[in-house]
Specification:
This protein has about 525 residues and is α+β, with helices and mostly antiparallel strands. The protein is built from 14 helices and 22 strands. The termini are far apart. The N terminus is likely disordered.
Length: about 525
Amino acid sequence: MRKFSGSTAVGLAALLTLTGCGLSGGQTASTEKVADTNQRIVVDNFRTPVANWALESDSAYILSLSGCLETLTKYDSAQGKVVPFLATEWKQVSPLEWDFTIRDGVKFQDGTDLTAESVAASLNSVLKAKVPARAFGPSTVSSVKATDAKTVRVATPVESALVPFRLASVNTGILAPAAFKGETVNPFGHCTGPFVPVSEKAKQSLTLDRNENYWGGKVQLAGAEVRFITNGATRAAQVQTGEADISLSIPASALSSLQGAPEVSVVKADSPRTATLYMNNGRAPFNNVDFRKALRSALDLEALAASVYEGAALPAAGPFAPSEPWAPGEAKAPKQDVEEAKKLLADAGYTADRPLEIIAIVERAEFADVATVIQDNLKSIGVPVTIQAKEYASAEPDVFAGNYDMILSQRNRLIDIADPIGFLTADYTCKGTYNLSHFCNEEYDKLITQAAQTSNTEERYKLYAQAGEILDSEAVNLWLVNEQATDAVRSNVMSYVQDPLSRYVLTAQTAKSGS
C-alpha cells in the first residue's frame, strides 16, 4: 500500500517557474504597504461562464480563480507537485482504488459541514454529467463513494498513478448538496472558498463577498468583482486606467505600453500554452496528410513570432515546448519552404475550388493579426483563405460537429490536469472529448492508454514523447508559437502570486492597500 501527502511531477517545477517584470517571484507583496481589509478588488478575466455554472464546463475555472471553488488536492506550480487542499492526505489502497481523507473543520458557505458524503455527491455530479469533464469522466474514473465519515474512495477502470492530479482539476471542485437541488448548478453560497459569490450580471461580471468563516484563515479583502472581458486590449486598458486591479492574459501588442505605465506591473510566467491553428482532419482537403504538411511548410513561424508577438513568444516545434521534460529530444521548429509546400500540394491533388476559412477567436486580440499572416503565407502557395472573427463560445458547437476548416486558438497542455495525459487524451484520441482536430490514429491511442497505466514518471514521459512524434509526423495541426502567461497588476495589490495555469487568482492572502 502506497501513501502520499503529495505526488511529485518531475520537471514541472522548472517548466512553470515564475519570472517577474518589476516584481519578485511574480508576487506583488510589499512590506512598505499596509493591507486595508475594507478594500475590494476588480479582476478582468478573459473567460465568460457558460453552461449555467456546471462544474464539468469551463465555468469551473471562473469559480476557482474567483476564490469560490476548491478541490481535494491542489497543484502547486512553484513546488511542481500535488499538495493537500480539502483533502489532507491520500493513499492507493489497491491497484484500482484511492482513498482521500477529508479535512476536518471545513464548512460550506451555506453553513453545512464538508463531509465525505457531500464530497462524493459533488464528484458524482461531474462524473455522471452528459458531457463529462476532460479530467474526470467515466473513461478514467469508474466510481466515487464515501467509505466512512472522513474518507472518499475513487475507483478507476485501470490502474492509474494520476488520480491525485485529476482531483486537483478545477472541474472536481466541491459544492454543497444544496447546489444541486435545482435544474442547474447553483454555486451561490455553496462553495468552501474564501469568497462567496453573491450576484452576477449575465456574461458581464460576478460579484463576491468575503467568507467570514473561511477554514483557511482570515480573508484580507472585503470582496471582489470578476469581469468577463474577452477583448485583450480592453483588459490591458482597464488595468492601466485603474478600472481594474488585475488583468489576466495580456496580449503581446499591449505589453510595451503597460511596461512603461505608472502604478502597473507586468507579471510573466513560462506557460505550457501554444497558439495553434487547428485543422479539421475529418474534412477535405485537410483529411490528406500531404495537404496539411504543405500548409506547415508554407508558414514562416520565425517572422510570425518576431512581428505579431514582438519577440514575446518562440516558434513552436510541435505539440510540446522544447523545455518540457516529455518533449522529443530532436524537435525543431519547421522552416518555411514554399517550393516544398507547392510540391506537397501537387502530391495531395489539391485544387483551389473554394476559399478555406480561418476562425480567429476574439478572446486573443493578436489572433486577428496572426490570421492575416497565415492568410498571406498560404496565398503564396495558391491556397485562398478567408478570415472570420468569433467568440470561442459561438464557434465551439460547429467546431465540435466538424463544420469548420481551421480555427485559431490556444491550449494550455496542463490545464485539465497538471500532466500532459489530460491534453493528449482529450485533444487527440479517437474518442477524445476535446478533439477539435477530429483526428483518429489507433497507434497513437495505444500509446496514450499505455501511458495512463504507467506509474514510472520517466517511462510515462517517454511515451508522451512518442505520442508527440506521431502528432507531428501527421501534421495534425499547425503549432505556431509557444507563449508566456502575462498578467498586469496595479501597485496597490498585495500578495498576488501569478498562476501560469489560470486557476487561482483571488485567495485569502490577496490584499489591497488603502487608497
